[in-house]
Please model this.
Amino acid sequence: MNQSEIEQARFNMIEQQIRTWDVLDQRVLDVMNSVPREQFVPEHYRSLAFADTSIPLGHEQVMMAPKLEGRLLQALAITADDSILEIGTGSGYLTACLARLGKHVTSIDITADFTTAAAAKLEAQGISNVTLETFDAAEGIESDKRYDAIAVTGSLPLLQQQFQKNLAVGGRLFIITGSLPIMEANLITRVDENHWSSECLLETCIPPLLHAVRPQAFVF
Model:
């Protein structure tokens, strides 16, 4: 596609996929319009950059469909002063959107291929307010670290409190839980030091975080 065709495809993605999925926050629509999604998609899937589909990234992980990325960004209601944690760097596209919306993003992925590639792509876009780390965060991170917003980009078969504890009071966590065929995307908000509220946003399906705790198999 030439640049004119790319911009038309981006416009169609926002108007026909993202906006129609009740993503109406103008800051979210603007950031998804300004961050060049096509630069973060694996080259051999570049033709699908604006399609209404998940895009394989390798290592059993995918790039979320644009409309789901939009719902995630809208649900987290990120402000310019927010400190953000992303579990699952993946392509780096969502990392870039989070960084444009907030103050600083710490993004963690178990796969060095992802964090290395994301670092180059973020640098190419002039995005410097991101710290990339490579390790397995499926069981959580240090409990004394607090964030205003947390995005978990792989599903968890079982909802545990490993990420809820990293929320600052008033902080928001977007997380997808459950198993095929139906998973739920939830927004969890820390009300105070000992209480959280939860809101079910939608049903969807994405691959689980690698090494995420799974339910024990039933044995007859």
Q: What stands out?
A: The first strand starts at residue 55 and ends at 58.
